[in-house]
Write a structure and sequence with these properties.
Blueprint lengths: L7 E7 L2 E15 L2 E5 L6 E5 L2 E7 L4 E6 L2 E6 L2 E6 L2 E3 L5 H13 L5 H20 L1
Parallel strand pairs: 1-8
Antiparallel strand pairs: 1-2, 2-3, 2-5, 4-7, 5-6, 6-9, 7-8
Length: 133
Amino acid sequence: MADSGKVLHVELVAADRLVWSGEATMVIARTTEGDLGILPNHSPLLSSIVEGVVDVQTAEGETWVAAVDAGFLSVADNRVSILAERAEMSHEIDLEKARHELERAQQAGENDDQAQEAVRRAEARIRAVERAN
């Protein structure tokens, strides 16, 4: 195991499952205030996250990318918890299906809050796949 002062223990959790857990050297997530980068020994933090992409740089040098819905981010003692209603790793996402979902959501109407949420979710899923490739 790596030196605990030089890594983060990260858990990405959806409402129905643990999506990813492991050691990381950096996490990037989009909060209501903008993109946030978290490195080891980050000060304690609790923030809301918005639909978007989470990047995790693992201790082994790999990059894992996930699409997440709105939720919460907690940082304390080199532990990062990302809790979202829905979260998917990029390799779990069917890109063509996500593009079709985006088209359907865009056609549903600009004034419909649910349609706009579906647009943001589909866009995040597409960005996650594209960023991972």
